[in-house]
Amino acid sequence: HSRHFLCRLAISTVRPRCFASTLVLAEQIDGGKLAPVTLNTLTAASQLKQDVDCIIFGSEKTSETANQLQKFNNLNIKKIFVAENAAFKGLLSESITPVLLDLQKKNNYTHILGGSSTFTKGILPRLAALLDVQPISDIIKIVDKDQFMRFIYAGNAILKLKSNDKIKIMTVRGTAFEAAKQGDGSGEVKIEKLESSVKNDLSEFVTREVTQSERPELSSARIIFSGGRALKSKENFKLLYDLADLFPGQATVGASRAAVDAGYCANDLQIGQTGKIVAPELYIAIGISGAIQHIAGMKDSKVIVAINKDGDAPIFAMADYGLTGDLFKILPELTEKLKKK
Ligand code: FAD
């Protein structure tokens, strides 16, 4: 009874939060768009079965992103906070974290979630340190409000962990949760502008260089042609681009770390433990041996095809379809056949 009274008291003095609730750190990408991983994070948040608030940071076009988020009225989202400020250009962790900390102090969320990405990797551990809780990274399953699953040992084992912290700060592996589907537009999701002064003497945004590509992002491509050390040169990687370009808007090119380290392609193409985690509908590993660190980044792909001249290469143990042979013979032939289709 007295707890009830305390709650009511808190409502009238501070903020109406005596119950469990979740904050989702939504990610805005260029041009006022919602990052795809935010949709996976929303699904994870909805599995906690409690009220959800979202927050978006950006230097411009945040209301466009908020409008997209507002369509997910089916997911128990109560409020979308929009924090727009020129100082958020480049989404620096040092600028964003104090604002998040203030919001947390006001609203006492029990769970704070963000998609696993470079954006959240800088912010959420900082926030966790300031709140003196243990961050939980890259969860693949929500068991209940305290228990979560994540991979350990480069994806070779799954850990079920129980957190006793009052606030769970987590990043969510996008490929482990379906992307949230929009609601019917009915019901109200409020958008609230968050006026915040930003103080950041620690870092400054200078410039950002982005690889321009007509091809889809690795994380959203339906088909990935991935090349390994066997490609032997940057020029030979063209064999993969030619294949990908036969599926405009759907296919792109990935790589093993050996190929990236050898300079055959840009390092943002790397797939694996220390690269990107992908789960396309079709993953074609070409001249890739299948080291565990590579497998860790692509094993959730729906269909895996391996092309390798060594019939004993470990990648074949993972593959749904295998082709033993020389890639320099197979790829031109494959390209020709696909062109005729
Ligand atoms: P290789 O292992 O050299 O394999 C080349 C394959 O090509 C062989 O199987 C060979 O049979 C085949 N081949 C050769 N010629 C032909 C041909 N003409 N036609 C067809 N097949 C041919 N690796 C990653 O990929 N991503 C990571 O994120 C990653 N993170 C790592 C993190 C740590 C801490 C460590 C220690 C390693 C990491 N690695 C990672 C490296 C990983 O261990 C392997 O070294 C790497 O994946 C090997 O790349 P590869 O398969 O292209 O090369």
TrEMBL record:
Q: According to its UniProt record, which cofactors does this protein need?
A: FAD
Keywords noted in UniProt: Electron transport, FAD, Flavoprotein, Mitochondrion, Transport
Q: Which domain of life is it from?
A: Eukaryota
Pfam families xrefs: ETF (PF01012), ETF_alpha (PF00766)
Annotated residues that bind FAD are located at 229, 256-257, 270-274, 287-294, 308
Q: Could you state a single Gene Ontology molecular function term? A: electron transfer activity
Q: Where is the Electron transfer flavoprotein alpha/beta-subunit N-terminal domain?
A: 22-209
Locations listed in the record: Mitochondrion matrix
One GO cellular component from the entry? mitochondrial matrix
For this chain's UniProt record, which GO biological process terms are given?
Answer: fatty acid beta-oxidation using acyl-CoA dehydrogenase
User: PROSITE patterns, alphabetically?
Assistant: ETF_ALPHA
This entry's comment on the bound cofactor is:
Binds 1 FAD per dimer.
Quaternary structure? Heterodimer of an alpha and a beta subunit.
Its biological purpose? The electron transfer flavoprotein serves as a specific electron acceptor for several dehydrogenases, including five acyl-CoA dehydrogenases, glutaryl-CoA and sarcosine dehydrogenase. It transfers the electrons to the main mitochondrial respiratory chain via ETF-ubiquinone oxidoreductase (ETF dehydrogenase).
Which protein family is named in the record? Answer: Belongs to the ETF alpha-subunit/FixB family.
PANTHER family in the record, alphabetically? ELECTRON TRANSFER FLAVOPROTEIN ALPHA (PTHR43153), ELECTRON TRANSFER FLAVOPROTEIN SUBUNIT ALPHA, MITOCHONDRIAL (PTHR43153:SF1)
Report what the protein is called: Electron transfer flavoprotein subunit alpha
The scientific name of the source species is: Adineta steineri
